[in-house]
C-alpha cells in the first residue's frame, strides 16, 4: 500500500449538430482499491454511436470490476462487437486504464489513439505488446506508477481536429503531446487538463466539430487531506470535542461560519479578524483570519456558492476561470477542495442559527444540511474521498 492516488477527469464535445455524444467514459472503483477507467468511441455520431459506446464502456467496466481477468473481458467484448460491413472496423473502439492499488497501471487499447504517458512533464514512450483476439489487434501494457505520471486517453476526434482547416492532416498525436507538455507541469487537475485539451480541439474545429472528441486524463499524485468545519454543534458542551477532533486531523483546516469561527478562535486562544478590505465579488461575504487556521469564511452563503461551482465542475466546467482566479471565500475554498484535496473531512454542527429562522430569509436548517450532502456528492464524483461527522 502506498500513499499515491489517482486524479481522474474527462471532457467531451459532440459532433456538430448532434445532441448526444458518441463517446462515453466510465470509472468504476473496486473493493480491492483498484480503479477501472474505460473510454469507448462508438462508430459515427449521434444516437447510434452513443448507445454503442455506452454499452461498451458499461460492459467492460462492470466485468472488470466483478473480478474477471483483463484477457477474458477484452476477449468477450471484442468477440461481441460487430464489424461495419462498409468500413471494416468495429462499431465501437475502446481504451482501458486499470489502476492496481495505485501501484501499477494496465493499459488495454483497441483502435483508439494510443495513450500518451507524460512522466516528469515529458511524453515518455512505453512498451506495448500486441495480441490478436478474435483476429483483432489489441495492445497491452503494464506500467509501474510514479508520482506525477499523467495518462492521456482520447477518442480519434482529438487528433482529427483541424483537418482541412487549421491543419492538412489534423492535430497529430505528437503535437497533442507537445501541447500537454506545456500545461501539465503547472499543476492543473485532471479535469482541467482534459477541459483545456478538448477546448483546444473545439477551437481547431472552429467550434463546429467534425467528430465527437473526448479526452480522459489520469494524474497520479500523493494524497492530500483537507478538513472543513461548518456550523457549531447542537450541544454547546460538544464544542471542545468537536474542535479537538477537527484540529487534530492532518491537513489544512477551513472554518466556515461566523459563530463557528468565534468558537474556533476561543478554543485556539487566538484573535478572529475580518478582512473587510479583501477583494469581494459582490455575492460572497468577506473572509476572516485566525492564526492556526488556513482559511476562515462565512457559512451558508459561501458554501452555497461553492456548491454551484462544484455542480458546474462535474458537468461542463464552464465556471473554471471564475473560481480559479477569484479571491473571495467561495473561490478560495473551491481551489482548496477541488484542486488540492484528495480526502475531505467535514465536521458539521447541527445547531440551529436563530438568524436563519426569519421567514423572509431563504435559509433554514434543512437547506444547510442539504448543502453539505449535495456538495459531498459532487466531490465524490470528482473522485474525492469524503467523510462527514455530525455534532
Q: Mind explaining what this structure looks like?
A:
This protein is α+β, with helices and mostly antiparallel strands and 391 residues long. The longest helix is centred in the first third of the chain and has 20 residues, at 46-65. Helix 7 (300-313) crosses helix 9 and helix 7 (300-313) runs parallel beside helix 10. The chain contains ten helices and 18 strands. The protein has two domains: 4-222, PPM-type phosphatase domain (Phosphatase 2c, domain 1); 225-390, no CATH class. The model has no long low-confidence stretch (mean pLDDT 88). Strands 2-3-4-5-9-8 form a six-stranded antiparallel beta sheet. A five-stranded antiparallel beta sheet has the order 1-11-10-6-7. Strands 16-13-12-17-18 form a five-stranded parallel beta sheet, with helices on both faces. The chain has helices at 46-65, 70-80, 173-183, 190-204, 239-248, 258-268, 300-313, 320-325, 329-340, 365-381; strands spanning 4-13, 23-29, 35-42, 92-100, 104-110, 116-119, 122-123, 129-133, 136-144, 150-154, 213-222, 225-230, 252-256, 273-274, 288-289, 295-297, 343-348, 385-390.
Q: Structurally, how many domains make up the residues?
A: 2
Total of helices: 10
**First-residue to last-residue Cα separation:** 32 Å
Strand content: 25-35%
User: What is the averaged pLDDT score?
Assistant: 88
The CATH class of the largest domain turns out to be: Alpha Beta
Strand line-up of the largest beta sheet: 2-3-4-5-9-8
Can you give the helix content as a percent range? 25-40%
| Biggest pleated-sheet summary | 6 strands, antiparallel
Helices and strands: which structural class? Answer: alpha+beta
- Describe the global form: elongated
Q: What is the fold named in CATH at topology level of the largest domain?
A: Phosphatase 2c, domain 1
**CATH homologous superfamily identity of the largest domain:** PPM-type phosphatase domain
Q: Over all CA atoms, what is the radius of gyration?
A: 23 Å
Number of DSSP-assigned strands: 18
Low-confidence stretches: none
Amino acid at each position: 500500500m502506498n500513499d499515491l492516488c489517482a486524479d481522474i477527469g474527462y471532457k467531451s464535445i459532440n459532433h456538430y449538430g448532434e445532441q448526444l455524444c458518441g463517446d462515453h467514459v466510465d470509472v468504476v472503483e473496486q473493493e480491492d482499491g483498484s480503479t477501472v477507467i474505460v473510454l469507448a468511441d462508438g462508430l459515427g455520431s449521434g444516437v447510434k454511436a452513443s448507445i454503442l459506446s455506452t454499452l461498451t464502456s458499461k460492459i467492460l467496466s462492470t466485468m472488470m470490476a466483478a473480478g474477471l481477468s483483463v484477457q477474458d473481458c477484452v476477449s468477450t467484448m471484442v468477440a461481441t462487437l460487430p464489424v461495419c460491413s462498409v468500413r471494416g472496423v468495429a462499431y465501437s473502439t475502446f481504451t482501458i486504464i486499470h489502476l492496481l492499488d495505485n501501484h501499477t497501471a494496465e493499459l488495454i487499447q483497441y483502435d483508439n489513439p494510443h495513450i500518451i504517458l507524460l512522466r516528469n512533464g515529458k511524453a515518455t514512450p512505453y512498451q506495448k505488446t500486441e495480441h490478436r483476439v478474435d483476429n483483432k489487434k489489441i495492445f497491452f501494457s503494464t506500467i509501474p506508477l510514479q508520482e506525477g505520471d499523467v495518462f492521456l486517453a482520447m477518442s480519434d476526434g482529438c487528433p482529427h481536429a483541424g483537418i482541412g482547416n487549421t491543419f492538412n492532416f489534423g492535430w497529430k498525436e505528437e503535437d497533442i503531446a507537445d501541447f500537454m507538455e506545456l500545461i501539465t507541469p503547472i499543476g492543473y487537475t485532471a479535469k482541467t487538463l482534459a477541459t483545456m485539451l478538448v477546448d483546444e480541439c473545439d477551437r481547431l474545429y472552429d467550434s463546429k466539430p467534425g467528430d465527437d472528441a473526448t479526452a480522459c486524463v489520469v494524474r497520479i499524485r500523493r494524497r492530500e487531506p483537507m478538513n472543513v468545519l461548518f456550523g457549531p454543534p447542537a450541544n454547546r458542551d460538544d464544542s471542545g470535542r468537536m474542535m479537538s477532533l477537527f484540529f487534530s486531523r492532518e491537513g489544512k483546516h477551513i472554518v466556515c461560519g461566523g459563530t463557528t469561527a468565534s468558537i474556533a478562535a476561543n478554543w485556539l486562544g487566538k484573535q478572529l479578524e475580518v478582512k473587510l478590505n479583501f477583494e469581494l465579488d459582490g455575492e460572497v461575504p468577506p473572509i476572516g483570519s485566525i492564526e492556526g487556521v488556513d482559511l476562515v469564511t462565512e457559512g451558508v452563503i459561501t458554501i452555497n456558492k461553492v456548491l454551484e461551482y462544484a455542480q458546474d465542475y462535474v458537468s461542463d466546467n464552464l465556471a473554471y476561470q471564475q473560481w480559479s482566479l477569484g479571491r473571495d471565500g467561495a473561490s478560495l475554498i473551491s481551489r482548496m477542495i477541488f484542486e488540492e484535496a484528495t480526502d475531505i473531512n467535514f465536521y458539521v454542527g447541527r445547531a440551529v442559527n436563530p438568524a436563519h429562522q426569519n421567514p423572509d430569509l431563504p435559509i433554514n436548517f434543512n437547506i444547510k444540511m442539504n448543502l453539505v450532502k449535495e456538495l459531498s456528492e459532487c466531490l465524490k464524483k470528482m473522485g474525492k474521498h469524503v467523510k462527514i461527522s455530525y455534532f
